[in-house]
Amino acid sequence: MARPIDPKALPAPRRDYHCVQALRAVAACLVVLLHCFTMWIAWFVKSPGAHAWPNGATGVDIFFAISGFVMAISIPGLRGTPAEKAKGFLWRRLARIIPLYWGITTLKIAILTIWPDAVMNPLGGLSRIASSYLFIPILNAKGEISPILGAGWTLNYEMLFYVLITLALVLDIAPLVFVTPALAVLACVAFIPHGHLPDFTTLASPLLIEFLYGLLLGSLVARGKFAGRSWGPLLFAASFIALMLIPKPSDNWRFLFWGLPAACVLAGAVASEERWGARLPKWLLEAGDASYALYLCQSLSMSAVDHLMSKMHLPAHPALAVEIIVSFAVNIPIAILVHRHIEKPVMAFFKQRRSVKKAVLVAEPSLAPEVAV
Q1: Dihedral, CA atoms, 359, 289, 54, 33, nearest 10 degrees?
Q2: What whole-number distance in Å separates Cα of residue 324 and Cα of residue 186?
Q3: Any idea where the domains of the chain sit in the sequence?
Q4: Please, which residues bridge with residue 139 across strands?
Q5: Whole-model pTM above 0.70?
Q6: Could you tell me which residues are beta bridge partners of residue 145?
């Protein structure tokens, strides 16, 4: 019979993962690039048969894997009773995700109230507004999850993942042991033929498996079974190239054709940490810090860029180049300013006033765990 693992015998977890932090910046930039292509098709190409380059959406798959990874390496540092651990975990997640998301959502609602034509999608009714704030999926005519802030659709899945982790902590069950069958069941539901169901049932999606990839990788790291590897950069490069070239799969198989390469990109970044983590430039790490702000803010700033671009009479391909340059020149500085002067002060405010004192992360990683996506 295998001997139980003594937690004290495990190596101390790292406090920072600079390569993963930089990967968050890359993932957010991929989403910006996706929207550049999407808006270019809408404003300049205007061809019903035209297709934008979809692979920028893989930034979301990378974010999901990172989220699972950070949960796995953070949870072992929680202290207290199961209930205290769960409260501490959930408080930190909500304080990290909600304030900025609600703030930008409210700003967009205000803009659309004053200027309804500011974006391509209308504001909608009270049910859409309420669902956006409460992280409850609501579908548009195309069957897509459509919160007020477009990027918020991924946060619905993030919140479900956090609820499952919280339940595991309350029940005092290892998160990997509890979450794995739960996510597997929810993923399998999507493959069962069914009639019309309420919009919230879209949370039962194979996309959830992508969190599991990161959770599994993080569990290996936390147990000291995934130290630095010389093949890390090669795995990162090969997986990233594959991710940029693989055609867009169907929603049900995205977790395999995009999610698995995204998890390999993350694994390559983790394996490269010991050799390359300390060599990364500070500006790239700060961009990683601001990746959540970039992910959310670009939903608003891209609308302004698109309106500006639509008034220019440019040929299609030069317009795409200008769209990309202007988008990054606008969005990255805005995201860094929002992170420095809004996001960080708000997080500090909630950290100082958190009601749970006993559930403290004694070895908290320095990278922020969300996406968010």
Answers
A1: 160
A2: 37
A3: 22-225+249-352
A4: 145
A5: yes
A6: 139
